[in-house]
Write a structure and sequence with these properties.
This protein is of the alpha/beta class. It folds into 3 domains: 42-203, Rossmann fold (3-Layer(aba) Sandwich), CATH 3.40.50.12780; 256-433, Rossmann fold, CATH 3.40.50; 438-534, ANL, C-terminal domain (GMP Synthetase, Chain A, domain 3, 2-Layer Sandwich). Helices cover 29% and strands 24% of the residues. The strands form 5 sheets. It has a 9-stranded mixed sheet, with helices on both faces. A 7-stranded mixed sheet has the order 7-6-5-3-4-8-9, with helices on both faces. α2 crosses α3 and α11 (310-319) crosses α13. Bound molecules: adenosine-5'-diphosphate.
Length: 539
């Protein structure tokens, strides 16, 4: 018979994270770029006090455990306080992606039954358009002081500072089952309505703890971390939880995410570690190259959300001394599920070989398991070449969608919709998304591999590939290129370049040069928009 362990059964609580940091790292700084005014600067102890004030204020508004509080907001200190006050009170923090179509925003706010909406003044026009359609929202709280409170026609707004000011900074955080829902995030809903992933306290705390590991994000009191990845999507990869666990200084970039603003913040605050999607790093690199700048403190950058081209990895590392950590995750996986993890032997390899390893999506972090399966659900070998749908399971992987009728799981595994390979050492590589892969003459072309090869050309700033219907081959690749400023790259040159790097039958049938690519709210290229505008038939 199994012998029960005799350890205390203390629940993993999000409130416990903030109280831990307030007690151990009370004087460690949080720096926040605000929508209005100069940089705001305070400490974990201050943050905890104000989160408790907000918890008291939410209770005074009549909210109860289980109530949902929405946010449409940038990464800033008030949003951070809400993360803790809401979940810590046993309520659900529903972060909304402001870049969703307004109809989808209305849908998710109503579906989540948000009773309060926290918003940044930037989004006042958006609130004006949706408020009348969200009857369950009783209070519209602007994350500002009274001076910067926008007047919105037909909406009674309250300034966050006015709301919390009368309340005590003492609050007894309730303890409850760690499996309770803490935060809610909806998928982007590229097909059908967005679906909600409801993260538990347990899932978030376990993921954040893993994020602190040296081989993952390496979060410690010696680090200063800047999450560029938005708090409105997938909990900013749980960095707002991991930073206070590890005691790292936290720098929040607010609304200014362009290369120049990020560079200025990184240098001014001596940031050592950052995290974001590749398009953000492409813009930052563009700014640095054009202005002949360098980094003085940055050691690592964590990247994910879409594939990071090897050429960019090489530039960060070889030219600017910043190590890239490439990870994979999705709304349904709370945050990071796989991450680059180099052994000492791999770190001794020539630079180009190291970059090729980092360009893959990494190995599972502890707590996560993955496999790839064929169309019949049979597990494929871990040989680095057999590709199939990536399946994932673990302590912070979705079991069912919020108010969803049927669990998406297959035999206890979540089907990701990504096509991947896994090699004998466990290194996973995303080859494509099932909806983006180009099926040509019975074979598959990876749009990601083609894009990465194209970005390797020195005149290319960004590249995207979609499949276009073809009468003979089913689909053929069409390449979109954004040239670097002042470069005169033409179709023949890029196709000749690609022909030396990919199989002949992979070379795109045509090239379209654009000023920019359509990029969505989470910094990913919107291939659906490209398909809508260019998705005819090749003859
Ligand atoms: P959406 O992109 O639909 O908004 P998510 O934000 O949840 O959904 O993104 C998850 C998807 O992003 C994954 O299923 C995968 O296709 C893609 N992705 C995430 N990280 C990477 C990566 N490092 N390389 C390639 N694709 C990635």
């Amino acid at each position: 018979m199994l012998q029960p362990g005799l350890m205390m059964d203390r629940p993993l609580m999000i409130s416990g994270i903030l109280e831990h940091s307030a007690a151990q790292f009370g004087d460690v700084e949080i720096v926040s770029r605000e929508t209005h005014g100069p940089l705001f600067r305070y400490t974990y102890a201050d943050c905890a006090g104000r989160a408790r004030q907000l918890a008291n204020a939410l209770a005074a508004l009549g909210l109860k455990q289980g109530s949902a509080v929405g946010s449409i907001a940038w990464n800033n200190h008030r949003h951070l306080e809400a993360y803790y006050a809401v979940s810590g009170s046993g309520m659900v923090m529903h972060t909304c992606n402001p870049r969703l179509h307004p109809q989808q925003l209305i849908y998710i706010i109503n579906h989540a039954a948000d009773e309060v909406m926290l918003f940044d003044s930037t989004f006042a026009p958006l609130i004006k358009g949706i408020a009348a359609h969200c009857p369950q929202v009783k209070h519209w709280l602007c994350l500002s002081d009274a001076v910067n409170l926008p007047a919105i026609d037909g909406v009674k707004t309250i300034a966050y500072e006015d709301l919390i000011a009368p309340h005590s900074s003492q609050f007894e955080w309730p303890e409850f089952d760690e499996r309770t829902g803490a935060a809610l995030c909806y998928t982007s809903g590229t097909t059908g309505n967005p679906k909600g992933a409801l993260y538990s306290h347990r899932a978030i705390v376990l993921n954040a703890l893993t994020g602190c590991l040296p081989g993952v994000l390496d979060i410690s009191p010696q680090q200063t971390i800047l999450p560029v990845v938005p708090m409105f999507h997938i909990n900013a990869w749980c960095i707002p939880y991991a930073a206070p666990i590890g005691g790292a200084k936290l720098v929040l970039p607010g609304p200014r995410l362009d290369g120049a603003s990020l560079y200025e913040l990184i240098e001014a605050e001596k940031v050592t570690l950052s995290a974001g999607v590749p398009t953000i790093w492409q813009a930052l690199m563009g700014h640095i190259e054009q202005n002949g700048l360098k980094f003085s403190t940055m050691k690592y950058t964590a990247v994910g959300g879409s594939a990071m081209p090897a050429a960019l990895i090489a530039k960060f590392s070889d030219v600017y001394g910043v190590q890239v950590r490439h990870g994979w995750g999705m709304t349904e996986t709370t945050a990071v599920a796989t991450m680059t993890s180099m052994t000492s032997a791999e770190l001794a390899l020539p630079a180009a070989d190291q970059h090729a390893l980092v360009a893959k999506q990494g190995k599972t972090v502890f707590g996560i398991q993955i496999k790839v399966v064929d169309e019949h659900g049979q597990t494929l070998p871990r040989d680095g070449t057999s590709q199939g749908e990536l399946m994932v399971r673990g302590q912070w992987i979705i079991q069912s969608y919020f108010k969803g009728e049927k669990s998406p799981l297959i035999d206890g595994w979540f089907p990701t919709g990504d096509i991947a390979t896994i090699d004998a050492k466990g290194l996973m590589q995303i080859r494509d998304r099932t909806k983006d892969v180009i099926k040509t003459g019975g074979e598959w072309i990876s749009s990601i591999d083609l894009e990465n090869a194209a970005v390797g050309h020195p005149s290319v700033a960004m590249a995207a590939v979609i499949g276009i219907k073809h009468p003979k081959w089913d689909e053929r690749p069409l390449l979109f290129i954004v040239r670097k400023p002042g470069q005169a790259l033409e179709k023949e040159e890029i196709l000749t370049f690609l022909a030396t790097r990919v199989a002949k039958w992979w070379v795109p049938d045509d090239v379209v040069f654009l000023e920019s690519l359509p990029v969505g709210g989470t910094g990913k290229v919107q291939k659906n928009d490209l398909r809508k505008d260019y998705g005819g038939v090749f003859s």
